[in-house]
Amino acid sequence: METLIELGKKAKQAERYLAQASTTAKNEALLLMAEGLLDDKTAILEANHKDLEQAEVNNTSESLMDRLTLTTERVEAMAQGLKDIAKLPDPIGLVESMWTNEAGLKIGKQSVPLGVIGIIYEARPNVTSDAAGLCFKSGNAVILRGGKDAFHSNLAVVSSLQKALSACDLPETAIQLVEDTSRHSANEMMTLNRYLDVLVPRGGAGLIKAVVENATVPVIETGTGNCHVYIDQSAQLEMAKDIIVNAKTDRPSVCNAAETLLIHKDVAEEFLPEIEDALNKWDVVLHADDKAQKHLNDSLPASEKDWEKEYLDYELAVKVVDSLDEAITHINKYSTGHSEAIVTNDYFSGQRFHKEVNSAAVYVNASTRFTDGFAFGFGAEIGISTQKLHARGPMGLPELTSSKYIVFGEGQIR
Amino acid sequence: METLIELGKKAKQAERYLAQASTTAKNEALLLMAEGLLDDKTAILEANHKDLEQAEVNNTSESLMDRLTLTTERVEAMAQGLKDIAKLPDPIGLVESMWTNEAGLKIGKQSVPLGVIGIIYEARPNVTSDAAGLCFKSGNAVILRGGKDAFHSNLAVVSSLQKALSACDLPETAIQLVEDTSRHSANEMMTLNRYLDVLVPRGGAGLIKAVVENATVPVIETGTGNCHVYIDQSAQLEMAKDIIVNAKTDRPSVCNAAETLLIHKDVAEEFLPEIEDALNKWDVVLHADDKAQKHLNDSLPASEKDWEKEYLDYELAVKVVDSLDEAITHINKYSTGHSEAIVTNDYFSGQRFHKEVNSAAVYVNASTRFTDGFAFGFGAEIGISTQKLHARGPMGLPELTSSKYIVFGEGQIR
User: Fold this and answer.
1) Is residue B377 a part of any domain in this protein?
2) Which of A47, B104, B255, B370 lies 20 to 30 Å from A358, alpha-carbon distance?
3) What domain range includes position B72?
4) Chain B residues with CB inside 8 Å of A404's CB?
5) Cβ–Cβ of B411/A243 closer than 8 Å?
6) Is the pLDDT of residue A128 over 90?
7) What is the ipTM of this complex?
């Protein structure tokens, strides 16, 4: 088993080759990786079977079992994902601006890879090929540290991808898996400043928190979403109902699902019973404050904890507010800075919401569910950043790049 | 003395006001701050006198004394700096791109402030007003933690700036000084994740290293520059001489000064004696490898340590290389990723240098001394980033911003 420092050194060696690889070479390799996954399907499914057997012994929860399970379709989807990445424009080598300075130097700002990206993630083996493909296309070496539960599956996927790299005369060490899945290896990655340019945690709130609190490697914080929908007094009832139902129930386990409904006092009496009816079809449990409970048939009392919680389930906190001001203050206090929506017919309420809500994506009259790289039209997504440095919101290929200044002189001195 | 948590809370309160402040309001405040510094000149110089007296008691070095000293001219320059910042375009509120997604949502990416910026710096009191002005113009609250040596000067400057903020009905807590100048307060800032969006260390290599190794707050690493000039075998002697002399001697104490000269073996015999002559005018001490020493009259033998060192003085490491390849490999191994230059007449050598050298600014036929926000034409500079995340190279006002997606819908759900 290689140490993280050994993996780091090898990744740094691969970095130079990757930065110089042509778009054509990278796309051909991605297509070969996709073919390879299909060719190695049996081996991958066998490895996954080992993980699933172990998971059963461990009495793993049903939802985790589902995330862990690979099927023929899922392997095919992983392969298709790599083919889709091959079709996206190469984010490397763009000179987004170039100018001449006072001394006559031509200065261009050119996109370059970040270098070596570390990814710490949990149970889903499809993240392995997705993340590897996106890092590879953007010219980055990647060190993947997946969860213990998916170890055999991840190893089979990475072996397959490395075989394809080898066949293209590209360094296998462009994509590496950390074989030590103990907590120790995760901690070691967090301080591997010498070899990692950035660390991206993908997973639950606990993992993200541990990485943010302990890493000295630059981190991109992703994916915790305590998202809000605020229904203004001027809102149309049907639109409000559609948006909150969609934001809560379309896919409750994802980060862009709504967790709290705020509603203006002037429409609470009329709207809340109808909203409750609509949410009842999905058996959504409501945690409501006193004022909201008055207009609801069946709800639990909400506490401070409910305003902070990302349920990721068919549960919703509900609060009646006196004003747009109170709504914005509540959101900026409790939100994780992911996605928030206002439903309103009032021009100035929409303007203020856009301006004053301090989150990565701020919607007027649409569901928070749109916050992802695919829905935004980026064609890919490595995660959704909830921090302000480097990238904020859905991250596609351009967010996996840095820049350098290339300067053309004719002997200028200062 | 307020705790850092108290300062953090107050900065967060100021953040919301600052993000909404109009360009006009910010510029008027900057001009008032400039006037204020001039009005308070006597008080500021008196405070500085206290610091200087204490510094003398402490047997402070001459160069540190120089950095610490304020004069009437220096205070006027600080005021002029704030006026210049007022003239720069407001980096906040730009919608750099806007598009319509498949569902018909209009999605705009708008620049917003980072939030609260922490700055840890050392002895120069003029950094206090510079950094405060840049953070303020970009709508950020700032918490300044200057060095112990400059404490009274910093306090006088910040008090003056706060008075101007107050006079404009803006929160004084937009600009705050940490009064505890112990090591403890610096360490506390490094993990103040709840209140700081980013931490920028400005100072010597020791400070930068301590912050990078210990901070869990997102950091922008700035300013260590082990910069190289490589003279290719096709270089013109006069141009090579001008560039290395300028890069080494124009201002040796700054981060974009050259620290190592690499020279191709085919021109070492002809060029090195002439370069030595030219550098002799500034008494530059040469640390040369065996091959270079043969062509030099007076040099010390170079060791591994010399390749790594940022002399920041009239000293230069010199090494003869066999090829462009060897030069690039040496640079990518020892450089801090700041600025590197090649002197060459060969088109393909220039191309390869631009592509393969992994630094923030890569020059063909110009001095490394141009790497700063003013020379690049940005009109300002908060520092020079040597990391790849968020910003790389000279950082002006746009590098002090983040973005948010503002989305305009008409009831879209997913």
Assistant:
1) no
2) B104
3) 4-221+387-408
4) 358-362, 392-393
5) yes
6) yes
7) 0.95
